[in-house]
Amino acid sequence: MRTRHLGLVLVALAAACGPSSRDVFEEYSEKFAAMRETLREIHGALPPAGGPAAPGGLTGLDPRPAYDEAAKTGNTEIVMDWQLLEPGASKGERMDLLLGGRLLTYAEWAGPDTPMSDRMAASSADGSFRGELEGALQTRYLVVVRTAAYDAPRVDLEREEYYGGSATMEVFLFDLPEEKLLGSIRFEAVAKGDIEYRYTEGGEDREERAGAWARSRIWETAREMVCDRLARETGGTFQLE
To answer: Which of 179, 187, 174, 94 is nearest to 141 (CA)?
Structure first.
């Protein structure tokens, strides 16, 4: 599994000229504070877990949702449900699909618990940086992913048994400026097929290593299904790396 990709458009210069990254973040602090409050309100508006899906409102959207994980562009952000309350959070024991883009990143970096280092904070902000922040604030659609149930993969090498695991995913699409729930889908991600894993003889525990690869398989399956189902239901584009 990969670590979250921050993708900040910042340029460090030996001699600071113009505003620093800290200056620009402070300039936008109130706007991102308001955005974090909006995200908390959306969390409170999520339907109870286990409820019926409501895909009817996902068709005919104008503009259509667009998401590109690699380019960090598009009009759509994808977050896990707990990140609405804490943008930088990652729950190791749960399914963090690591699909968050620039809105989630900047909401964290402009907050009181910013992970920005002193060196980065003091660096000069690139001329396009304000445009990046404005683009994040103008995100049209917010996708919230919630894991309703998770049955972890299990590997027993001695018995040569492997269970790929499953995850029941609930996916909600909001009009972010309106804070309006447009619709939702629900599906079960099931990892299928054999797993291949690598280990060092006399080093890593083989069963632990195989288990890590099995968990990666269900994680990848869930990521792909979220994007595939959203593209099918909305007619939009959802591109993974």
So the answer is: 174
Residue 21: count of CB within 10 angstroms of its CB: 24
> Do 99 and 223 touch, CB atoms closer than 8 A?
yes
Q: Which of 190-199, 212-221, 228-237 has the highest mean pLDDT?
A: 228-237
Rg, C-alpha atoms of the chain:
20
Say if 4 falls within a structural domain.
no
Cβ atoms within 10 Å, residue 101: 22
Does pTM surpass 0.70? Answer: yes
For residue 3, tell me if it sits in a domain. no
Quick: pLDDT tens for 89-108: 776 656 889 999 999 999 99
pLDDT tens digit sequence for 32-84: 999 999 999 999 999 998 888 898 899 999 999 999 999 988 999 999 999 99
Hey, what are 102's tokens?
């620039």
The residues, ordered by sequence, that sit 6+ positions from 12 with a Cβ below 8 Å of its Cβ are 119, 120, 123, 124
Per the structure, the complete domain to which residue 161 belongs is given by 21-50+63-239
Does any domain span residue 16?
no
Residue 192 CB burial class (10 angstroms; 0-12, 13-18, ≥19): exposed
Contact 209, 85 (CB under 8 A): no
Give how many domains the chain has, as a whole number: 1
- The answer to the question of residue 56 being in a domain is no
